[in-house]
Amino acid sequence: RTTTTYNARLMEVVLAHRKTPDVLAGMWKEISRIAKEQKEPYLAKSTRRGVLSQVATYRVFQELGHTPTFATPDEDAFNTVDMWEDDQTALQVEWSDELEPQLLSTEALPVPAIAIPGTDADRYYSSRTFSKVTRFRSKLQSLNRRGRKVHGYLLVVPDSMMDHVTGEPTQEIIHFVQKQLGLKKQERRAA
To answer: Model pTM greater than 0.85?
Structure first.
C-alpha cells in the first residue's frame, strides 16, 4: 500500500504541474538520482512509466469531457483499480513498449493480440496482458459479490502515446479510446 500511496501523490504532482514541464523534468531527474543511489535505477523508470500512463489515461477521459477519478491507494493495492471513469466503470492501466494501444473489457475477455510489423505472423498473443485482465476481472467480480455493480477495462497505453515528462496523451490514444468505447465528446462540465 505504501507504493500505491506514493504513486498517488506523484500523480497529483504531475497533474498540478502539467503546464510546467521544467518542474516535472526536475522531479523525474531527482527521483532517478535517488533510485541510482539506492542501486535500484529500474524502480525510477517503472514508477515514472506507471504514473505517467495513469495520468495520460486520466487526461484522455478529461479531453473527452468526462470527470475521471483516481482510485484510492487501497482500491489500487487490493482491487487493482487504478481509476474510475464513473461509479460503475473501473479502469486498470498498463504502459507498454508496444506500438498499438489495447482496450480490453473484463466482460468479454478476448485473447489479447498485437500485430508484429515486418513478420509473417498477423498477430501474437500476450499472456502477460491476458493474465492482467483476468486478474482484474476476478477482483471486480469480488466487488460485485459485495453488492457493487462494477465492470471494467484494461487499457494498455503505449509509451509512444504519452509525453514522457507530463503524461499528456497524444490525439491518437484519445481517438482510440473514444472509438473503442463509443464515446461522444461531451461538453466540459463546470468545475
So the answer is: no
